[in-house]
Amino acid sequence: MRGVARQLDAIEAADPAHAGFAARMRLLARQFNYETMNDILNKALDEPRAA
Q1: What is the pLDDT of residues 1-35, one digit of tens each?
Q2: pTM of the model
Q3: What is the 3-class SS of 9-23, one letter each residue?
Q4: CB within 8 A of 11, min separation 6: which ones?
Q5: Burial class (CB in 10 A: 0-12, 13-18, 19+), 25
Q6: Which residue among 8, 16, 26, 38 has its CA within the 20 to 30 Å range from the CA of 32?
Q7: Domain locations along the chain
Q8: Cβ-proximal residues to 26 (8 Å cutoff; 6+ apart), any chain
Q9: DSSP class of residue 32?
Q10: Angstrom distance (rounded) from CA 47 to CA 42
């Protein structure tokens, strides 16, 4: 959990626009809901990136 929290802190520090994403992922991590976290990340990776 600590490693996940550190990575989420880094994401949020790099771009505060991702604060909502980081907060949601922190909540899921505290609940040990890694399957949902994985689903969210996979969907995000499947979305086309803005140019």
Answers
A1: 789 999 999 999 999 999 999 999 999 999 999 99
A2: 0.80
A3: HHHHHHCHHHHHHHH
A4: 18, 21, 22
A5: buried
A6: 16
A7: 2-46
A8: 4, 5, 8
A9: T
A10: 9
